[in-house]
Amino acid sequence: MLANYRNAILGTVLGLVGAAVASPNGEPPRPDNRDSTIVPVDSVFQSTADDRQSVSITIYNQNFGLVREVRDITFTRGIASLEFRDVAQNVQPETVHIRPLRGGLRVLEQNYQYDLLNPQKLLEKYVGRTVTVYRYNSESGEDEPYQAEVLSVNGGPTLKIGDEITFNFPGRFSFPEIPDNLIAKPTLMWTLDSDRPQHELEVSYLTNNLNWKSDYVFVINEDDTRGDITGWVTLTNQSGATYDNARLKLVAGDVQRITPNVGGQMRREAQRAMMAADAVSQFSEESFFEYHLYTLDRPTTLRQNEQKQVTLLEGNGIGIDKKMIFYGAAYYYRGSYGEVVSNQKVGVFLDFQNSEQNRLGMPLPKGIVRVYKADGSGAQQFIGEDRIDHTPRNERVRIKMGEAFDVVGDRRQMEYTVISGCVSESAWEVTLRNHKDADAEVEIIEPIGGDWAMLSSSHAYEKLDAHTFKYTVDVPEDGETKVNYRVRVRWC
What we know:
The protein contains 2 helices and 31 strands. The protein has helices at residues 2-21, 119-125; strands spanning 44-47, 52-60, 64-74, 78-84, 97-100, 105-113, 130-137, 142-152, 158-161, 164-167, 172-174, 187-194, 198-208, 210-220, 226-237, 243-252, 283-288, 291-296, 300-302, 306-319, 321-327, 339-354, 367-374, 380-388, 395-420, 423-434, 440-447, 451-457, 462-465, 468-475, 479-490.
């Protein structure tokens, strides 16, 4: 059946090709050194992963990858079909590119076969045909065969056995053969026209469900001034293929893609990368278009349904700025509130500069930074985590650790006066209390909308932008600091 189908398709293709390239006397031209014997179309050659000479994978952190492999193909002179097996199950067929490295090969047709063999598909292919169903006979202790015509498989097989129509028939199904149009693995199939029986064939394609993400382990010192960071790459291969001894590249950045709205794709969160004491960076980094490319310095094997973790970078003795920040909100200035917040915890952040001067300076792919610190016994304890975006070199990284336990604040509106329909004046008091055994420096960040003017202030402030100002104040150990200011705001 398959041979007849291939002959019919190829006949059509060859007719069109022949009409397009025929010589004036009606004879189709032949390439130089071409064997005059045309191989029948039902000659099918196969190539598997065993034929690979090399494979390289470029993985994007958007759940897809580019696979490029070179295979040594045993073929024939003339026209025949090639089954290119062991490709990714999630290959995008429209992205496949085939290229003979030494020429002499034309692609007449390409097909992607993905009708995979499974019990349901096998039953569907046998609708209207007869199968054997074996049912166990408890009296004889043997399986008894029944000849059954498969009428339907919707909601379970419906069978005709003798003169009866039945369903939910208990038994073991037996099939005389596997239909030609069912295959065990996804396969690319080409109809090729070749001038020699051996080729080095380069094939590349995009596939979904190849992904990578970065995780960072950040260990800070006792006084929160320096830390050591280790970056990990977690690779996840659910593409439907295994790649042995692959050259691996990773692309970090937001690559534009046109994606159809296809549901049901599984996206699994990779497991958290754990810190290794002897980790050594194994990737080299380079700028690539408007992205960054990371190349592993050795081949690696990516197995199907496997997660692999590889060290991306290391930085030791990185300088840290620990910040405590007490945030306000813009809407406070447009109404009468009285006490806005009481005993509000102060946020804790770690800032560091991603620069060579700060013993780092490698573009950081987006990921989660997990921070650890040794307790009094020397044991490392987890103290917080945050997600960072792609960060170029020489940019500042901010990690939110959580809220301080011993530093809290109140924010009260002391006065509120309406000047006109959209102009008001308000007086504020911000009180910070420090219950620690050491002084604390706290930043008070006040977002404020519209046009504003500071009328009076107990402390010096810094205008950060058109709609934000900041106080930086010291709060003594086991003490408090109050900041008072009056501001006029117009919002229309």
